[in-house]
Write a structure and sequence with these properties.
3 domains, single chain, 11 helices, Nucleotidyltransferase, domain 5, binds adenosine-5'-triphosphate, Dna Ligase, domain 1, globular, binds magnesium ion
């Protein structure tokens, strides 16, 4: 049984790392930290420089004193395909073979040989007639640079997961959750209904566009804009600047519209007459939801309970000084570490 696991979230803005161990019947954070992601390391889920990424990962690992060698890493990328599909009911071995045979059609990825793709699947419903499967896959060239950089840094991953899937692990007893992660330049939306996949979307928008908007509106540089985002409310960011304010407004609007459209897609797919029939709560993670007032806008528009996702609700810390001010930014890293610990149960 794995006693402790490291979750690594390689974000476009910051790399987050957390080591979690089993403590009696519960779980405990033993190490936690983050570092700014160098501009040249990754962009929208793609590694730009393996070496830069490896160096950054290695120094964070050393600084935190990470000791577990069971590592789970997460990826969010528009190049990862997630497809729900059905087959006539068959045994597990046959299912594996049929999937392999039909992989190209299911994922609509172009490849010549099977070893050019990385894929996995999960069966989530089975009747006498049909078996429903969620298939996830991408070109190996997307994940190989991650594996290589992590291995160089002494963090060879045992599992690679999709961030949004891992996020679900920090929740307890929610039947119909919708998880929204608003990062630096990507927003992912994932929902389930009673343990069955219902939707996964990635919007190419995030906090960086709001930073650019603040730079324009207040005619300031990036560092100052990051400070303003932390200090000011969304209302004052939208009103107080003397420069053009359109970019902040349109980014927030695009974000809210993208979330609303996805919620409505889920409602239609689940044949609900209103969104709150098919979603209990929207949980928001990622650094961008720290902006004061953003959560309230999403909550007002969606008319369903909306909260920041606290991944530490059921987890203790070896040292209270480690508890972060903005726990929701660590939600992915925590979910990934939990994936490692739960896989071995
Ligand atoms: N206290 C804060 N107040 C306002 N905005 C914040 C705060 N902390 C972080 N942010 C914003 O959150 C964003 C970074 O969030 P996060 O760390 O979740 O991104 P990431 O995981 O690195 O990126 P991605 O998920 O897109 O790969 C940045 O745009 C940053 O300005
Ligand atoms: Mg992120």
């Amino acid at each position: 049984m794995v006693k402790s696991c490291v979750g690594v979230d390689i974000g476009n803005a910051r790399i987050k790392m957390v080591e979690i161990r089993r403590k009696g019947r519960g779980l405990q954070v033993v190490k936690l930290g983050e570092v700014v992601t160098p501009d040249s390391a990754v962009r929208r889920g793609k590694v730009l420089s393996e070496d830069v990424l490896a160096t950054t990962l290695r120094s964070l690992k050393q600084e935190l004193g990470i000791s577990s060698d069971y590592v789970v890493v997460g990826i969010t990328s528009q190049d990862i395909v997630v497809k729900q599909t059905k087959f006539p009911t068959m045994g597990a071995k046959d299912l594996a073979q049929v999937l392999e045979f039909e992989l190209k059609d299911i994922l609509r990825l172009s490849f010549n040989a099977l070893d050019e793709v990385a894929y996995s699947y999960e069966e989530f419903a089975r009747t006498e007639e049909e078996v429903e499967v969620l298939v996830t896959g991408c070109q190996r060239s997307l994940i190989n640079p991650y594996i290589s950089a992590l291995t160089q840094a002494g963090l060879a991953p045992s599992v690679i997961d999709i961030h949004a899937f891992a996020l679900l692990r920090v929740l307890k007893d929610v039947e119909k959750p919708c998880l929204v992660d608003i990062g630096a330049n990507q927003t992912s939306i994932y929902s389930e209904s009673n343990g069955v996949f219902s939707a996964y979307r990635i919007l190419p928008i995030g906090g960086d566009q709001i930073t650019e908007g603040v730079m324009e509106a207040f005619e300031i540089g990036k560092l100052k804009a990051e400070e303003y985002k932390k200090e000011k409310t969304l209302d004052s960011l939208l009103q107080d600047g003397t420069g053009p304010k359109g970019l902040i407004r349109t980014t927030v609007q695009q974000l809210v519209d993208g979330i609303m459209q996805t919620l409505d897609f889920i409602r239609a797919k689940e044949r609900g007459s209103s969104v709150n029939e098919v979603i209990d709560t929207v949980f928001i993670s990622g650094g961008t939801v720290s902006i004061q007032g953003l959560l309230e806008i999403i909550s007002t528009e969606s008319e369903i309970p909306t909260e920041r996702l606290d991944p530490f609700a059921e987890i203790t810390f070896t040292d209270q000084s480690m508890v972060p001010e903005d726990p929701w930014t660590f939600a992915s890293a925590v979910g990934l570490a939990l994936r490692g610990l739960q896989d071995e149960d």
